[in-house]
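testing teh design pipeline on a random one, pls ignore if ur not involved
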């Protein structure tokens, strides 16, 4: 009898602790997966996160509005459905893409699964708080204790999430299912259901990795329009989902949160213009490469620089790059090269080194964190670590034109920080590249001579002519990152609803009024 009483005392605290842990893990899995399915611009990240927390709110709201019997039945149905995550909603997303259904179906799918993911966990706290308590003061005290336990569990779940970084979803799912089995046992208190869940979880566990790769490949085949796709790598890093996909021709693609970062064929032109050419022209004493997780630009710069420092934030991207995009033998013996895992801003703020060349090989500004590395404030920070004629090289995510789009706004930010900016427009690389300095150590003729054999039709915009392209451009700045949400909203609405109107037109009109 004493052991039964002890079990009763510890049951609720343990249950709330595990609910918090499961909530933390499910939030991680659901948000990462749906951001990847919908493509991870900032707008999508906000929308998916909002969907998850709306599910929580609905769970809290409905928690006391149904009977204990209904609660048990619905809880069992939903928790067994969790054994199909994340594969069931990937398959449904494939179906939506395959049959070319409305973009609203993706939104409905997301909110439906967010409700399934989070609402059932939100129900427990209010029900346990009000269970057998009629005194309001006692209920408040009980709420504080149980909510604290749920928060401690949430923190423990986040620690488990941290253990899963740079691993496949199979690692965290097996832990998640084990925790759910204990939750079932504590909540329902019937061994039959617990045993049934454990048996199904063990059966499913043997094929999790295969299902993960197969459903990911199907997403890329039908949603990204590959003729055929093979998943070579899919992991969750600390910052994003990192995936390497191979198409029917053997071409390799690196995707970050469902957005194409690069393919193997593009690397040659990208590395040539952003790394090899400036290092060849400058012959730097010290070179800093920020980003370039594939490390593919290092062998291009190394022969021309006496020392090369690489700084990459995401260990998951490094893993993908070294395994699939840059052969290990290309990096062996580079004793004048150093790699550290760090944030580019933090490195520049803390290093005492001065560089003759800084190469910014980072993704387009589709999220706030990426956009910060394209702002005038960041470029001013970079300038403080450049020598007198030091150069910063930046890829502009598209061709520079007379507008207020991304390339023009990035060049405008460069122009705010540096006295001279040269831009080259490469049809071969399908983008522009900017080179900025207080005093560029090479001329347009030098650039033409160096690139002639690689691309005859290269357009070179001299520092004198660059301002002519910026009449409409507002520099990206920490207090002016509207581009992130506007561009994300543009892409999101165009992708799923083929919207002709410009959803950010009003924002741009206000910006133009500000300029004038």
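output:
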């Amino acid at each position: 009898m004493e052991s039964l009483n002890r079990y009763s005392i510890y049951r609720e605290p343990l249950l709330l602790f595990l609910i918090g842990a499961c909530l933390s893990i499910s939030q991680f899995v659901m948000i990462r997966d749906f951001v990847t399915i919908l493509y991870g611009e900032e707008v999508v990240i906000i929308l998916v996160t909002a969907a998850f927390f709306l599910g929580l709110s609905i769970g809290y709201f409905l928690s006391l509005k149904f009977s204990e019997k209904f609660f048990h039945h619905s809880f069992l149905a939903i928790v067994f459905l969790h054994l199909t995550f994340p594969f069931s909603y990937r398959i449904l997303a494939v179906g939506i893409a395959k049959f070319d259904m409305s973009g609203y179906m993706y939104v409905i799918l997301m909110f439906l699964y967010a409700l399934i993911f989070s609402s059932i966990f939100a129900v427990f706290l209010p029900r346990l708080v009000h269970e057998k308590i009629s005194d309001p003061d006692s209920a408040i005290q009980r709420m504080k204790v149980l909510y604290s336990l749920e928060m401690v569990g949430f923190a423990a779940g986040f620690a488990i999430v941290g253990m899963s970084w740079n691993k496949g979803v199979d690692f965290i799912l097996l832990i998640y299912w084990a925790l759910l089995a204990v939750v079932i046992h504590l909540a329902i208190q019937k061994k039959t259901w617990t045993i049934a869940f454990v048996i199904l979880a063990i059966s499913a566990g043997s094929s999790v990795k295969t299902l993960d790769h197969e459903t990911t490949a199907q997403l890329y085949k039908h949603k990204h329009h590959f003729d055929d796709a093979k998943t070579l790598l899919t992991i969750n890093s600390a910052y994003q989902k990192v995936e390497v996909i191979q198409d029917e021709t053997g071409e390799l693609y690196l995707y970050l949160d469902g957005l194409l970062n690069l393919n193997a064929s593009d690397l040659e032109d990208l590395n040539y213009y952003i790394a090899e050419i400036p290092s060849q022209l400058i012959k730097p004493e010290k070179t800093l490469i920020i980003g370039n997780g594939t490390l593919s630009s290092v062998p291009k710069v190394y022969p021309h620089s006496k020392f090369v420092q690489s700084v990459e934030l995401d260990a998951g991207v490094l893993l993908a790059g070294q395994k699939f995009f840059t052969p290990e033998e290309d990096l062996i013996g580079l004793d004048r090269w150093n790699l550290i895992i760090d944030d580019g801003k933090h490195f520049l703020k803390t290093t005492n080194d001065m560089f003759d060349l800084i190469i910014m090989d980072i993704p387009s500004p589709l999220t706030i964190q990426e956009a910060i590395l394209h702002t005038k404030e960041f470029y001013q920070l970079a300038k403080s670590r450049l020598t007198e004629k030091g150069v910063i090289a930046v890829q502009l995510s598209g061709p520079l034109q007379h507008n207020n789009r991304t390339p023009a706004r990035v060049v405008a930010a460069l122009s705010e920080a540096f006295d001279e900016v040269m831009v080259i427009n490469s049809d071969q690389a399908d983008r522009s590249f900017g080179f900025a300095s207080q005093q560029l150590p090479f001329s347009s003729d030098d650039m033409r001579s160096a690139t002639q054999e690689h691309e005859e039709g290269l357009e070179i915009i001299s520092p004198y002519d660059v301002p002519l392209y910026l009449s409409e451009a507002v520099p990206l700045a920490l207090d002016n990152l509207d581009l992130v949400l506007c561009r994300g909203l543009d892409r999101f609405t165009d992708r799923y609803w083929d919207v002709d109107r410009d959803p950010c037109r009003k924002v741009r009109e206000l910006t133009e009024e500000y300029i004038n």
